[in-house]
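SEQUENCE AND FOLD
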Amino acid sequence: MNENITGPFQVGGIVSPPYFIGRNKELKEMQESLESFSQNYLVIAPRRMGKSSLLNALKMNLEKQTNIIVVYLNCRNVFSKSSFGTKLIEEFLKVYEQKYKIKGLLEVFKRTMKDKILATIRRIDKIGGSLGDIGEVYIKFREKEIDEQEYLEQTFNFLENFSKEKDKRTIILIDEFQKLHNFNDAIFELLKSKIDIQEHIRYVVTGSSIRLLQNILLKKDSPLYMMFTKKYLEPFDLKTTITFVKNRLNKFDVNITEEGLKSIYKYTGGIPYYVQKLGQFNFELSQLTDKSVDKIMVNESFNRMLREFDEEFESRFLEKFSPKRQAILKEVAKRDGARISEIAKAMGLDVNFLGESMHFLIESMVLKKEKRGYYDLFDKVFKIWLSKEL
């Protein structure tokens, strides 16, 4: 990688080394556990905390093992139960072909979707095994002989059976898992039944909505309760943030003062995406001024970042939150943490009238509960923007 071209920071997308930092503990624990096939994982964090980047790092490390197949699927690109099943099969076969230098398996499956039925049947009869079985299943789905639920069940069966046939172990990484909630909870009941018996498959799923994940995984009566080990991603601490920003700027012969480093942490709260973005803005400004980055330059760069987020934050604030929830967020933004009694008093309401809205904001990972009963906004940049809009 030519860092003189790519720059010191990576803003947006899946972040890879040397830009991926601060998750060594989580990565090591999850990798060792998955290599031993001991458990499944649920990674929980709000947006911009690096969940997808963690999955990518996990994938890069695990796929070094010769007998492990690692499949990644983002549910933002899934629009039905059947498309979830089809994309899982396609990604699985693509990874298998690439890793073991085999051709033709994915093409055979894809042709079952479009070729004439008789020609397809002849082709999959020649293949046999689990791939032939899933080809027959897809034909039945094409002909509406089975529904989406049955097709998805056979998809999970195929993944297990193919892995067993080839004497491989498969790890499936599912990003934005809660999006599957749109297709009814039967999909989660099905997954539970398969996890109970699958010996060659393990799962890592991510989510950014506690509210939806509660219904799927975290409540005692939820379909997948106790099936996944929870892993929460926290923002970077002060030391991690400072070390990362300083080292990345130094690689490009840019110095930054201690006050400038502390300001970057203060403004971003250690949220990875914001650290990268504010770091990049300061780098660009240093190239224009030919100066070291200091506190004043960080302030200027942060104001530029706020202006860039203005439309997004305004749209999010007005469209996602009801007037009552907006009022709660405004009151919290005024303070360095607030008790619910203080919020209620400022709004002229009884505390009991805030319960449902507070619950929603916490489950949506917008508010977080601090020590001693105080609440604060999770997203520090959004909080600063909101306080300026009051």
About this structure: The longest helix spans residues 295-320.
